[in-house]
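quick one, 347 residues, struct below
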Amino acid sequence: MICSSGEAPHDSLDRAVALALQGRALDAPALAAVLACCAAGNAQGGAAEVPRLLAGARAVRERHAGRRLEFCAIVNAKSGACSEDCAFCAQSSRHRTQSPRHPFLEPAEIVRAASAMQARGATRFGIVASGLAPTEAEFRALCEAVTLVRAAGLAPDVSVGLLTRERLRRLKAAGLSGVHHNLEVARSFFPRVCTTHSYEEDVEAVRLALEEGLFVCSGGIFGLGESWEQRAELAATLRELGVRHVPVNFLVPIAGTRMADRAPLGPSEALRILALLRLMLPEAALRVCGGRGLVFGAAGGEGQRELFDSGASGIMIGDYLTVAGTPPEADLALAEALGLAVAGQGG
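---
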């Protein structure tokens, strides 16, 4: 097969890596070669080019991020009873799950959780709350928690749904560092995932936070049935918005949700997703978050080793929203064994 440019796919894949090493966007033939390699890796006998793809992604990561790994952590500050109908989410009130439910935590409890994660290597701490937007009482408690987390020496981030410009400015005054707001999937796939708010509302939430000069983390969740082209579509949207910090989540099928019967992704496909994102977003910080243990296996194992040595440049440590995570001590030990400098740990 020859690409429309007249180049063989092998040459176009090499050029994709070369463009990413320069921090440049992939042109159409280069992206086509990367997507063809990613998709071929799913087919029997189609993985011949995958090692070159993964090696290229690793080289791009090391060019732009060095041999560093950043740890971040979150607290589930308000859990369950969410009004939204996201197909994968255990906290949606539309689903019958065993997800914990509790009101917004006291700020002192949030800062205790932040300090515990700081002692284990976290440099950023996200305060996450279910729902489309906090009530005014919840928002006041959130501002107090942000101030306390900042005073404890961590960069406080929030993931609390849609925030107006006025609320963003109040949070900045309280000491906020960043906003997490995932687009989750490509625009073309979004109607299959959520119907209770629009994709444009999520895009606008990201745009507002960027306009306010905040650290913005926005990425997605993979393994919902989206195509490789839709994965690239999401990455292209993030690049167009100027997002520089991208959390990467992998589906954990949870009983009671609409995605309960989907098979989890395997580590090979997950590594190819990370390679695609690294080549399309060469200078972004890619942080692997939810689903890491399910997809890559036990702490300190070969799967985690491959992940740490991939195109990713950060991980979430500790527990996730409704699923237990990998022990932070095991993550730190593996990073040190691989010669990776962990942010906040002398690196």
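DSSP finds twelve helices and ten strands in the chain.
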